[in-house]
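Researcher: Dear colleague, please comment on this protein.
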Amino acid sequence: MNPFFERDLRLSRRQFFGKSATGIGMLALGGLLEREGFGATFQGVKVKGHGTPALPGLPHFPGKAKRAIVLWQGGAPSQVDLFDYKPGLFNRRLEELPESVRAGTRLSTMTSAQGHYPILPAIKPFKQYGKSGMWMSEMLPHIGSISDDICLVRSMHTDAVNHAPGVTFFLTGSQIPGRPSMGAWATYGLGTMTDELPSFVVMTSSDEKKTCGQLFFDYYWGSGFIPSKYQGVQFRSDGDPVLYLTNPPGVSPELRRGVLNDITELDQHRLADYGDPEIETRITQYELAFKMQTSVPELTDISKEPKSVLEMYGPDVHKKGTYAHNCLLARRLIERGVRFVQLMHSGWDQHGNLDTQLALQCRDTDQPSAALVQDLKQRGLLDDTIVLWCGEFGRTVFAQGDVNRHDAHGRDHFGACYSLWIAGGGFKGGTVHGETDDFCYKIVKDPVGVHDMQATLLHQLGIDHERLTYRYQGRDFRLTDVSGEVIPQLFA
């Protein structure tokens, strides 16, 4: 077959409409409107340009949310100590977890061959928060203060028991790297709301002492086999958030603009000859990079934020690269039209330092997480913004290590049950979904799998998870693979 004819047959819907007269006309009109000052406005912040349209037919139905923020707690927070209140365990401290309870549950190799499985209750007391009376650890007073705004899911489960496969599974739908991430699927299907900033932004942080050895791989926010322009753009913690935003000495903005125009013209000729979507990506990314020279410095300058807002996020908000600073930037990104923000924070992998590290990790993340929800709510953005707080799995109810030493024991990975919470975006605040047994070991009511949660999040964005697909190597792929059910009980 003629390769150029084959290329035309394989045009995606977006490419077809983008190359049609209507698509070109709308792009031209968008450019004219932008120059005339008709960009969108979020809470008084001007969003320049109009971004790119959604795929034809999307959203599939009116979504409650337009955008999402993922607060990723890398290393797996302990649901036993933070969210899943089991008062009966205190009288069973250091008793052997019954074999009848443990039977049939997958464990990691670090504890599957342990000789003893002593029960370790929550290391700090729980208390009730809000009008809903939601039980959470006293180590999370700020998240507790927004309990009436969050939906707490206590019945999550996953097939993974190791970090990288667990993170990859939740964020891409497969334990094997190479699939598009949630943020890539969302921006591919729904398009972008601004052309001044990336539609999908990622920021990383870690606990101060870097006790968690897990790495953040770029395929956690990659685009897999869909065009690479949909992958997340990582903002750095040190120096310029994005490399090469500043022109070299002697290069004026006008000269830079002229060079980019010439490069774009050459790329357009190449695109017309070969139809390679990566050439199109290169064109759009060069253009975005030029605009970001203005938009990113303004975005990251928090000096004009009110003192009350800065205090709400806590003292670390002034330190670049911290979780608190990134939470504030997440709000600023959202209100400037960014579709998907993913904050990746590590430090929760507490195998041998639970007594010393868990409280520190809560201190670093509790206040900023709650502040982000409160900030969005005060600005009228929470109703159509999903905020998801989660990790890759949970932790065992039994102890790992030497329980007689406060600095030498913790909990192992556990995928059979764990907890996460969601705020905004049409989710029902002040509610608890799902239930585990008295040992916090098995789910006894309303289980929620990873693909179920992905389907539910996409649903709130107006996407039918079974209909948003991409054909690759002869198969139609989707985020939820071949499973997943929307959980309507989570909706307001």
Observations:
- The chain has two domains: 1-38, 45-243+309-490.
- The chain is about 35% helix and 15% strand.
